[in-house]
Amino acid sequence: MLVPLAGAVAMAVLLGVAAFVIFNRDHDCSAGKLALRVVATPDIQPALSKIAGTYNKALHSIDSRCVEVTVTKESAARTANALAAGKAAADLWVADSSLIVGRLRSDPAGAALPEPSGSAALSPVVLVAAQSMADKLTASLQPSWAGMIAAANVANPDGPGKKVRVLALDPQKNSAGMAALLAAAGSAKKAKQDKALVGALKELSGQIVSDPSALLASLTVRSGSKVPVGVASEQSVYTHNAKRPDAQVVPLYPAEGTYNLDYPMTVLAKDPGVRKAAASFQKELTTSSAQRTLRDQGFRTPDGKGGDVLAKGKGFVSTLSRPLAAPDPKTVASMAQTWSRLNLGSRMLTLLDVSGTMALPVPGTQLTRMQAISRIATEGLSLFPADSEIGVWAFSTHLDGQGKDWREMVSVGPLSETTDGRLRKEALATQLATVQAKATGDTGLNDTLKAAYTEMTKSYQGDKINTILVLTDGAGNDDPDGGVGNAEILSFLKKTYNPKRPVSILLIAFGPDAPKGKKQMDALAKATGGEAYIAENILQVRDFFLQGMERRLCAPKCDG
After folding, report:
1. Is 196 found in the same domain as 63?
2. pLDDT in tens, 273-332
3. CATH assignment at residue 400
4. Is residue 64 domain-shared with residue 166, that is, in the same domain?
5. 412: which of 230, 307, 391, 425 fits an S-S bond (Cβ 3.0–4.6 Å)?
6. 137 and 227 in one domain?
7. Which residues fall in a coiled-coil region (predicted)?
């Protein structure tokens, strides 16, 4: 009886020794600790920190050193800037989107950045509205990127924008904001709605919110009659609702599909041991326990599966539709440039023709040319945001004393600034509504244009788009007393124009005489990288202003 018992005891001892050896081999911290610094975007950092805590307790060993993972939060945009400057303090970077990683890798400053080695989670970019207003919203706007463009298009005031106000996440700070713009641009391109896209981007530039939590909170605050709708990641919707049960929002999944935030993981460490530690932690993120943690915090696993917190009864969908094809880095960079250039401030001097021909009636209307041009000016200037700097000069021969063909009606400055006891925007509206044509005046355009171009070039502001807008009946330059001739003004503009400090001329003519002056108008505009248009009706001016805004994207090389 003792022999079998002794054998059993010996076997148990051997098994225990083996287990001890194996355990200590896998959890050998005899050489100390091995630090792994993970930098992640603020939305996923809490989940990764929780996973890291569990991982650290398990004493994972690399070369006799136990890995100790710390996860700090930092916006992807800030980390990308640090990497471009060679100052990033991280071993493993978890950005929120491949959009920002791909764009950085395509830039010379980030060319050495390794390719991501997997995805930590997914979260689709969605439209969002307050739960209490969702029904009212969908009655006016079906969830789609095309609908968002239509509602935000500043040049379509009679569209869904009458009932809907679109808020945007700053694409320079948020990958969800950039993804939304790319999805909207793709939709507009398919529908051949490029001008509508420019109008929408211009409007959204004045409705941007830097932080997703602030955007979602604002959706539940009623302001005016318009229903607010925004863009955010699905996970941020879950987080908001978990924190604000009294102010719930709902995700609206765009009909065309959407982009996913895919949380790419990029190993930045050079040390072989730290790289092994990064690989070990990445493997940990694929375990059922880690993926459950991610799902419990509103993320989907890389295969698109969501947890119970993303239940259909809470407004979420159980299965994601096929995502939009990922844009290449060049497309992402182009959109970033588009947004940046469109959002440069506007500084514009408007030259308003008040010569005698402006008193003539416009056939088929009850308006004089002066009244029509004034309405065109009012319509066009209404498209500019409050921080725009705008002024108006009237022009006709000898308008301000003998030999001076122009008179300042409102000085160039911010629309929201007070001038002579009232806002500049109100002063402009009053002047445009009351201006009268000078019955005996000739045009005097060239003298005025030379003076205006000299002034705008002298006072050029590099952080703004500097433009001279000419509104006329298109009769060209008519100055019996001499003054600057057509050849002279063209020579002056070509000589003065500086592509590094561009001041462009935009001309809009309205009236039966407009076609006569089109050739000269084109020459004046082309000399400064501008454009000339003939308006057939007042509302057409919206398109002209949008086309002028489009030229910001290519200036100063719009014509080759």
Report:
1. no
2. 999 999 999 999 999 999 999 999 999 999 999 999 998 888 999 999 889 998 999 999
3. 3.40.50.410
4. no
5. 391
6. yes
7. none
| 84 CB neighbour count, 10 Å cutoff | 15
Q: Which residues contact 169 (CB under 8 A, 6 or more apart)?
A: 176, 177, 180, 208, 209, 210, 212, 215, 230, 231, 232
Q: Mapped to the 3 state alphabet, what secondary structure does 313-350 carry?
A: HHCCCCCCCCCCCCCCHHHHHHHHHHHHHHCCEEEEEE
34: amino acid identity, one letter: L
SS3 content of the chain, % helix, strand, coil (to 5): 45, 20, 35
DSSP string of 349-379, one letter each residue: EEEEE-SGGGGSBPTTSS-BHHHHHHHHHHH
Domain containing residue 465: 344-553
Give the end of a domain, one of 310, 334, 368: 310
Alpha-carbon distance 4 to 230, whole Å?
Answer: 75
CA distance linking residue 403 with residue 405, whole number of Å: 6
Place of tokens 């408007």: 350
Q: The tokens 């379509």 sit on which residue?
A: 156
Does residue 99 lie in a domain region?
A: yes
Residue 247: pLDDT over 80: yes
The answer to whether the CB of 161 falls within 8 A of the CB of 184 is: no
Dump pLDDT digits (tens) for 98-136.
999 999 999 999 999 999 999 999 999 999 999 998 888
Which of 156-160, 190-194, 528-532 holds the top average pLDDT? 528-532
* Percentage with pLDDT > 70 across the chain: 92
Burial class (CB in 10 A: 0-12, 13-18, 19+), 439: exposed
Record the tokens describing residue 150, joined without a space. 């239509």
In angstroms, rounded to a whole number, what is the distance separating the alpha carbons of residues 69 and 52? 6
Q: CA-CA distance, 173 to 343, in Å (whole number)?
A: 15
Q: How many CA atoms lie within 13 A of 490 on its CB side?
A: 12
Domain membership flag for residue 338: no
Burial class (CB in 10 A: 0-12, 13-18, 19+), 559: exposed
Return the CA Rg of the chain: 31
Identify the residue with better confidence: 13 or 511.
Answer: 511
The 10s digit of each residue's pLDDT in 379-426 is: 777 778 788 899 999 999 999 988 899 999 999 999 989 988 899 999
The closest alpha carbon to 309, from 178, 123, 474, belongs to 123
114 with 256, same domain?
A: no
Residue 180 contacts residue 253 (beta carbons within 8 Å): no
79-93, 249-263, 357-371: segment of lowest average pLDDT: 357-371
Are 115 and 197 contained in the same domain?
A: no
Domain count, the chain: 3
- CATH number, domain of 195, equals 3.40.190.10
To the nearest 10 degrees (0 to 180), the angle between helices 98-106 and 175-190 is 80
Is 526 inside any structural domain?
A: yes
Instruction: Tell me: do 209 and 296 sit in the same domain.
Output: no
Region of 161 (left: φ > 0; alpha: ψ -120 to 50; beta: rest) is alpha
**Residue 366 near residue 454 (C-beta atoms within 8 A):** no
The reported pLDDT for the residue numbered 555 is 57
Instruction: Tell me: do 227 and 278 sit in the same domain.
Output: no
Residue that is written with structure tokens 């791909």 in the block: 102
CA dihedral 306, 96, 214, 127 (to 10 degrees): -60
DSSP state of 132: G
| Pair (147, 202) in one structural domain | yes
